[in-house]
């Protein structure tokens, strides 16, 4: 989908982008009154292949536990949209794509984007379907940041918001972890100041290290211990060398190697930067609650009309429950409609992608309730 | 000090090393009956310059809060020894030194060493002073691992052991973080398969990334938030670029840049590997308590004679209190003499190096008590 053709999209940086491409997938059918649309927002290294085989890796969609027949987001009931974020590398405009002005890959000449810019682009996509109001916007981690931004930027266009394992601002520790990843990429000579595509090289080593560093943060210590402990790799004793002696080392190396096949290093820089910049309260005088107020009768601010269902995971130390609780407090401060569940699991931040039945039950319960109230029917029902 | 001249030291790997150099510093005077010796064991990137200016960085000693006049380890009372671990890079035998057999830098031909090997080398150093029994062995993090190993390898040679912010085995998560650092170093083309010294290059970029990744784990989220939060670097607004916008980014980059001036990349590989391999229980049938039993009368095992004082820090997520507690449980299981304090602080793993008054009070209290019982006097007293 090419967007911003009539007029370019103005980014937070002040740069005007357009026309630009946004790659997306949909599942299910938009109903007659266009009231059954759900926007799924993906995380840092996610993409639009929510519920179908990934074209590069050949693996199943990244959220088939959430989206699909019989799943909480059933295409029989909902029209589900997921787009690759701008700055991404699976077809949407980003550093890997060609800058129409130069005919060369954008590389670092691509403008730095924000979570709000990602959401702006998605809003144009939603417009293109003629959808005024989304039944639901849902996503985990950076996807959850987009959900929050949607609710703040377009409160009248979101009926229900489900931000999962996320935060209203990126913490100092998380910025630090991102900076480690960026430095790993930029330390790779094959990165070539961001110009690697023009030169025919790829900073695979640096990107693999960035992925490994990040991957450790996606799991809990308990999960790592349960999965690997100090188990040795195919051997009965340590080798007194620097090969992967421990299973956890092989696992990490595998994560690094497979990641570079499907992801662009510059996209990694851009998307981590967008997360670092995310700070909803900062744009509202430092008071998060203000982000959730909308103009009311006589100019008196009132609570956002969006219904929220927040989910956090007990063992998530990257986006801990305290971050979700801060959002819930802000929503309560304006008397917004919010429910909040902390799921007890040892699977860490990645829980929202994993088989954690209670999590899917919570989301299903919330969505079914709201869909029932809104009169959304299953196809054929 | 050159050690292993009479006969080489047999390492855990089976390799025989010797003669080999061990660089050390001492503070204070050994008393007549050689009963006042304290061995300080340093952490991963530490060295022998405990309480004096560092010869490379010009900075104060790394533990001047613990060692010095009026400090818990007062040279007026104790003879304090600290040696650079083997595998290190400040004068002890390690990959940076010259392999006498070839006249070339050891590089990766240096044998992989373990915590027990570090302790074996220290025992030879202690022998060279004619010291039979150390009044105390003390150290934090990897230093604490050495303390534990001393107590297990030489229970009759250690009166008091103070393992701080440490563990009896390196966790899967910590192995993972180390592996990220090693991969960052080995991804740097200037590492050259470990042969960089012969080639006149240095993998400074990879080593800096390794240091940055590790440094994040040494601090708590709270400490990072308190120190930096989302504060911007010398600017009022974000720059929409990849320079260090946030103070935490500049801080991390600085940590990386300064570290490479004082540390050898191959040493980083060897020392992290030694920590990964550390697993006291594994050498004792998987039962940690067995590590703390010694042969008693009639061959019946009895508790180690070593007195322990363990310290952990509440915000240390790298070596959390649960790891210390596991050691305390094992010591209690054999009815050993142990006291344990968790210090409440938000400063993270690095607390043992920082100004946390309660921590130094605890150590002072324990040492003063034991020194009094042992009749150790201050000089001139």
UniProtKB/TrEMBL annotation, chains A, B:
Domain AB hydrolase-1: start-end pairs: 36-353
InterPro entries (alphabetical): AB_hydrolase_1, AB_hydrolase_fold, HAT_MetX-like
Cellular component annotations (GO), alphabetically ordered: cytoplasm
Gene3D superfamilies: 1.10.1740.110, alpha/beta hydrolase
E.C. no: 2.3.1.31
Residues the record marks as active site: 141, 316, 349
Reactions catalysed according to its record: L-homoserine + acetyl-CoA = O-acetyl-L-homoserine + CoA
This protein's UniProt keywords: Acyltransferase, Amino-acid biosynthesis, Cytoplasm, Methionine biosynthesis, Transferase
The keyword Cytoplasm belongs to this UniProt entry's keyword annotation: yes
GO molecular function: homoserine O-acetyltransferase activity
GO BP, sorted A to Z: homoserine metabolic process; methionine biosynthetic process
List of residues binding substrate: 211, 350
Top enzyme category: transferase
A Pfam family this chain is assigned to: Abhydrolase_1
Principal location class: cytoplasm
Location in the cell: Cytoplasm
Pathway the protein takes part in: Amino-acid biosynthesis; L-methionine biosynthesis via de novo pathway; O-acetyl-L-homoserine from L-homoserine: step 1/1
Superkingdom per UniProt: Bacteria
Function as written in the Swiss-Prot or TrEMBL entry: Transfers an acetyl group from acetyl-CoA to L-homoserine, forming acetyl-L-homoserine.
Subunit (UniProt): Homodimer.
Similarity annotation: Belongs to the AB hydrolase superfamily. MetX family.
Record's protein name: Homoserine O-acetyltransferase
UniProt organism field: Aerophototrophica crusticola
């Amino acid at each position: 989908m090419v967007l911003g053709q009539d007029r370019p999209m103005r980014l937070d940086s002040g740069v005007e982008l357009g026309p630009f491409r946004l790659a997306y997938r949909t599942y299910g059918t938009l109903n007659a009154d266009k009231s059954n649309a759900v926007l799924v927002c993906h995380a840092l290294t996610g993409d639009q292949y929510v519920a179908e085989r990934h074209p590069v890796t050949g693996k199943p969609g990244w959220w088939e536990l959430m989206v699909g027949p019989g799943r909480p987001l059933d295409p029989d009931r909902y029209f589900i949209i997921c787009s690759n974020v701008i700055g991404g590398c699976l077809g949407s405009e980003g550093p890997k794509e060609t800058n129409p002005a130069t005919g060369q890959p954008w590389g670092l000449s691509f403008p730095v984007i924000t979570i709000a810019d990602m959401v702006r682009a998605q809003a144009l996509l939603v417009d293109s379907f003629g959808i005024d109001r989304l039944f639901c916007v849902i996503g985990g981690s950076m996807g959850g940041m987009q959900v929050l931004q949607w609710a703040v930027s377009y409160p009248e266009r979101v009926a229900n918001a489900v931000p999962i394992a996320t935060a209203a601002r990126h913490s100092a520790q998380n910025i630090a972890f991102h900076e480690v990843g960026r430095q790993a990429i930029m330390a790779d000579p094959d990165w070539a100041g961001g110009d690697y595509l023009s030169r025919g090289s790829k900073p695979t080593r640096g990107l693999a290290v960035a992925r490994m560093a990040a991957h450790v943060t996606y799991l809990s210590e308990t999960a790592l211990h349960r999965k690997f402990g100090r188990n040795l790799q195919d051997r009965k004793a340590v080798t007194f060398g620097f090969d992967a002696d421990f299973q956890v080392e092989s696992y990490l190396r595998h994560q690094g190697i497979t990641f570079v096949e499907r992801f662009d290093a510059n996209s990694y820089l851009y998307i981590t930067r967008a997360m670092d910049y995310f700070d909803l309260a900062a744009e509202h005088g430092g008071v998060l609650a203000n982000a959730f107020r909308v103009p009311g009768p006589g100019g008196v601010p009132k609570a956002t009309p969006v219904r929220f269902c927040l989910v956090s995971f007990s063992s998530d130390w990257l986006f801990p429950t305290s971050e979700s609780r801060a959002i819930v407090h802000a929503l309560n401060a304006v008397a917004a409609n919010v429910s909040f569940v902390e799921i007890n699991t040892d699977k860490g931040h990645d829980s929202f992608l994993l088989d954690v039945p209670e999590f899917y039950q919570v989301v299903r319960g919330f969505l079914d309730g709201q869909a029932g109230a809104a009169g959304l029917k299953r196809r054929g029902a």
